[in-house]
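Module 6 notes. Inverse folding takes a fixed backbone as the condition and produces residue identities as the prediction. Think of it as a translation problem where the source language is geometry and the target language is the twenty amino acids. Below is one complete input and output pair. Work through it position by position during the lab.
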């Protein structure tokens, strides 16, 4: 009971994971979708005009819809609806990626089905970055780079071949598309079968170096650092050295100054906020981390906190302890 009271002490509620976060319109559409209806999703997407928000909302809706036939029913009812076609591609990509994680015997079949839908969506919605993000997401199903589009030459000699053409197509439609960069990282994590973190780190530094103020690409090095930490957990006796070194501290400060201080609250993804707060806390920059925790509010995301403990149920407690430590420092 005492621990529960501590968790609720300042914000009044225990932090929890909510994919919609503070996006109330998205939350309403998700609730409607979970009851088998698609009209709220249709209305929400029709009102979504910014590419960053469109990319984020379609990804979250697809994750919720992947285990249902809601989007298929919508497309059957309105076969000419462009948004329905893009969501159909989104859902099929999500299913293919899940099948790969679960080593399902239909993975290849689902992959080809998803690729066909995404490829069709590039023609149906030629100005939309999401169909290209879908194709980029599917690249991680080809770690051996057997498909030609997955082994294009990189724009920088020190970077490996990969699905650079797909990344460029997404970028032409939405420069610095957040999800596109993360899909590229996911490809590099598995390239060649097990991936090379040095290549992923090189890409993250390159993308951050190219990014304008306010772009989420400035946080990519923090994600690579978390991935390295995750892989080392259990056999690295000095795990905290991942965070307290000069390079880690510089990466966290760059995320704060180049991204956080140049964005509006609504533009910030919950995952990015949690990774930045985690990095600032881990590098002992408590007062700055407190500002980011305030922006997070009650919305917690399991990564990166869950990698700090073998018991994932304790991840929220790690989050609360870090938040309280940083608030105490900020309060003097």
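Target side of the pair, the amino acids:
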């Amino acid at each position: 009971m005492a621990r529960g009271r501590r968790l609720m002490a300042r914000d009044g509620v225990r932090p929890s994971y909510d994919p919609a976060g503070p996006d109330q319109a998205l939350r309403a559409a998700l609730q409607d979708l979970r009851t088998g209806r698609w009209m709220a999703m249709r209305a929400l997407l029709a009102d979504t005009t910014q590419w960053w928000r469109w990319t984020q909302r379609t990804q979250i809706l697809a994750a919720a819809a992947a285990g249902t036939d809601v989007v298929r029913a919508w497309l059957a009812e309105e076969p000419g609806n462009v948004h329905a076609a893009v969501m159909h591609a989104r859902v099929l990509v999500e299913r293919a990626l899940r099948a790969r994680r679960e080593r399902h015997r239909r993975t290849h079949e689902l992959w080809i089905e998803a690729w066909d839908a995404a490829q069709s969506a590039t023609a149906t919605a030629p100005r939309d970055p999401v169909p290209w993000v879908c194709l980029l997401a599917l690249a991680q199903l080809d770690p051996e780079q057997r498909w030609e589009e997955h082994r294009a030459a990189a724009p920088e000699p020190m970077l490996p071949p990969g699905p650079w053409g797909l990344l460029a197509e997404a970028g032409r439609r939405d420069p610095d598309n957040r999800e596109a960069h993360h899909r590229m990282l996911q490809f590099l994590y598995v390239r060649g079968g097990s991936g090379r973190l040095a290549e992923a780190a090189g890409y993250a530094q390159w993308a951050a170096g190219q990014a304008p103020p306010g772009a989420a690409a400035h946080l990519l090095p923090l994600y690579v650092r978390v991935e390295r930490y995750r892989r080392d957990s259990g056999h690295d006796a000095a795990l905290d050295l991942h965070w307290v070194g000069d390079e880690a501290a510089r990466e966290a400060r760059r995320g704060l100054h180049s991204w956080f201080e140049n964005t509006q609250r609504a533009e910030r993804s919950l995952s990015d906020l949690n990774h930045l707060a985690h990095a600032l806390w881990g590098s002992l920059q408590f007062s700055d981390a407190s500002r980011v925790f305030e922006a997070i509010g009650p919305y917690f995301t399991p990564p990166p906190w869950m990698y700090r403990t073998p018991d994932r149920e304790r991840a929220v407690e790690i989050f609360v302890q870090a938040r309280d430590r940083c608030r105490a420092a900020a309060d003097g």
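Reference fact for the lab report: Residues 201 and 296 are 26 Å apart (CA to CA).
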